[in-house]
Design brief:
The complex is a heterodimer of chains A (147) and B (222). With 147 residues, chain A is an all-alpha fold. Chain A has 6 helices and no strands. Chain B is of the alpha/beta class and 222 residues long. Chain B is built from 8 helices and 6 strands; from the N terminus they run H-H-E-E-H-E-H-H-H-E-E-E-H-H. In chain B, strands 1, 2, 3, 4, 5 and 6 form a 6-stranded mixed beta sheet that branches. The longest helix of chain B has 17 residues, at 3-19. Classes of the chains: A mainly alpha (147), B alpha/beta (222). Chains A and B meet through helix 1, helix 2, helix 4 and helix 6 of A and helix 1, helix 3, strand 3, helix 4 and helix 6 of B.
Chain lengths: 147, 222
């Protein structure tokens, strides 16, 4: 009896798999590397190099699959770049996110604007303190609009 | 195989699944609000496991995007909250909606509550179970557009849920250590929860504007 029940379940799962495959028409490229990279970042894992490598894998696989890169992937890459001090890359990838997803424009522009304002204030501070230069992109995620 | 036995079991399964009936939700508000972009906030969690929030938050991004919405980059948003001194899920809930709109420019915000994130020990086996409640709130007027709870575990190597097992097979994860079991189960749970017209979810989320299935959800005809 139990054995027969299992066979029914098996049969049903085969049907699901077959129909499932036919309709697995994803909009974006799905891969564990992107999610894992975000997970590492969110639990404050300081190994940004590994998180960047996971994203490189994601972008490469997405490109060869012909599927679109998912929302947030460029922006996530941008923040990882800022963590390792690659400022030019940060802005480049934020722009890529904006280009691919117009819904992100408001937020990313808000971040860039506020970090510019902040940089101006910090630069004046730096001049008086005679300390070395800073970069706007490292503060880009702050979105602190107190300034 | 005895065909009668097969029908008996199929009937039995239908009977059991039919028992737990409740009214389907009214999708009118959700349809009318027509959200395009969603901010997913760091979940509040009853679990002591510090990784529960990060695991669930990271796992939501891809499936929710695939459902047809623009998901605000979760890591960037989390940094924005942190730099502004907001680190706690309950603090995020207290941020005025106008402020959320001003910073993120989103149509809706997804609040997540982790009801369970732990290992269960039975006599012969142990399994990890994750339970999450998601609540989609309209940023402009604060109305709840959609709310659903989803539970997932990895019982005996399979979840006992064909749909989830299929997903699990598709997403063979590099992280396989026991320590990351919660993360793996969270990923499967999020794919289950945020797949429109998923037969395993009573009130599935509607397909968003970037999905080819937008406005064609079967649930809208029920």
């Amino acid at each position: 009896m139990i054995y027969q029940f299992r066979r029914v379940i098996l049969l049903i799962s085969y049907c699901t798999i077959l129909t499932g495959c036919a309709s697995a028409d994803y909009i974006y490229y799905h891969d564990s590397s992107y999610t894992e990279s975000m997970y590492m970042f969110l639990k404050d894992d300081p190994d940004y190099q590994e998180q960047l490598e996971l994203m490189d894998t994601y972008f490469e696989k997405a490109e060869s699959s012909g599927k679109k890169v998912a929302p947030g992937a460029y922006a996530h890459y941008a923040i990882l770049k800022s963590k390792i001090g690659a400022e030019g890359e940060t802005l480049k990838y934020l722009e890529k996110e904006k280009e691919a997803f117009p819904d992100s424009v408001h937020y990313i522009d808000f971040l860039i604007e506020t970090s510019k304002k902040k940089q101006q204030t910090t630069n004046t501070d730096n001049k008086t303190n005679n300390s070395d230069g800073n970069n706007s992109e490292q503060n880009v995620a702050e979105g602190n609009n107190e300034h | 195989m005895n065909i009668k036995t097969m029908f008996f079991w199929m009937f039995a399964i239908l009977m059991f699944s039919g028992c737990a009936t409740r009214e389907h939700m009214d999708y009118t508000a959700f349809k009318n609000a027509d959200p395009h972009s969603i901010l997913v906030a760091m979940p509040s969690s009853v679990s002591n496991d510090v990784n529960s929030g990060p695991a669930v938050l990271a796992s939501v991004s891809l499936p929710l995007s695939e459902a047809g919405y623009y998901v605000i980059p979760v890591t960037l948003a989390n940094e924005t909250f942190k730099y502004n001194g907001v680190s706690d899920a309950s603090e995020i809930r207290n941020i005025p909606r106008e402020k959320i709109k001003e910073v993120f420019g989103v149509d809706a915000i997804m609040y997540l509550t982790i009801n369970e994130y732990q290992t269960h020990y039975t006599l012969l086996d142990s399994y990890f179970q994750v339970s999450v409640t998601a609540e989609l709130v309209n940023v402009s007027d604060g109305t709840v557009l959609w709310k659903e709870t989803s539970i997932m575990n990895n019982k005996s190597g399979s979840s006992g849920n064909i749909f989830a097992d299929l997903i699990a097979a598709l997403f063979k994860h590099a992280i396989n250590e026991a320590a990351e079991l919660g993360y793996n189960v969270s990923v499967n749970n999020s794919y289950m929860m945020f797949t429109p017209d998923n037969p395993y979810i009573y009130d599935p989320i509607l397909s968003g504007p970037y999905s080819p299935k937008y406005r064609k959800d079967k649930i809208l005809n029920k």
